[in-house]
Amino acid sequence: MKKQMKTVAAIAALAITILLIIVIINQAVQFSGVLATIHPLLGQISLILFVLVILTALLAPLYLYIRLPSRLIPPDSEEGPDYDRYMDKLSVRLSSNPKVSLEKVVSEEEIHLALKELDAESDLIIKKTAYRAFITTAISQNGALDALFILGLQFRLIWELARVYSQRPNLKELSFLYTNVMVTAFIASSLDEAEYFEILESSMSQGVGSVISMVPGTSLIVNSTITGSSNAFLTLRVGKVAQKYCNSLVRKERQTIRNSATTEAAKMLAGIIYDGTKKLVAHLGSAPIRMASRPFMRKDKGSE
């Protein structure tokens, strides 16, 4: 089924590309015809220039993509020459990474230490992004707008994590990372509805706790917390999937990455819900006070 979908998508993309090329060429020919009414030589020169520009626009990105250095591909096992070559290339990359405190990364132990430092750095980015997703969507409560915001936030998160592990990720690495993260985290999701709500319920019971127990009219806060928690969890899981693709020393199955990322995201969710709910309660609690004080603030400004 997946192969069929990929084939259909590839055919559709190729058809759209061909149609766009035809439209562009048609417009160029028409414009050259207009110039030819002024002088035939002018029309021929302009047509040649248009063809060269179109060919350059089509072939230059392909040439640059081919010229990019190949991405680091983890081997299938921790033994053999493929693993040794991969570790050598990885040690060179980690040695040039300014986020690694070690002067040189040579041995396997040093590689593990360097990756732990980068994992800690990436965890901070993942938590910060998930917290932002929680606060924004909990307050916004706009389904379509929130979906676009979360998608953009998660794409930016993947880019930031790629830069943590590889300071200058090339197009090949980014395309591989984006494709695999999105497929692993969304298209082939292993979470059913029951398991998903179980994770949210457990995290909310730990994270919310007594934060809203003393607040009257908590239904609005609870609904906002549920919305924010769902988006925060999805963002955490995307971040963890991307992290595991970036720090892997051997190739792992998508199911393994997905399950591990889900477990770690669930552990991080409670703290984000707790901190986010406190800020949400403070924001919603102070809103009536701010609204009630506005008339007096206007009077004070008017009296001045």
Automatic annotation (TrEMBL):
Keyword Methyltransferase: no
Membrane-spanning residues: 7-29, 41-66
Any single GO CC term annotated in Swiss-Prot or TrEMBL for this entry: membrane
Keywords for the protein's UniProt record, in alphabetical order: Membrane, Transmembrane, Transmembrane helix
Protein name (Swiss-Prot/TrEMBL): DUF697 domain-containing protein
Cellular localisation: Membrane
Domain of life: Bacteria
Membrane topology, as annotated: Multi-pass membrane protein
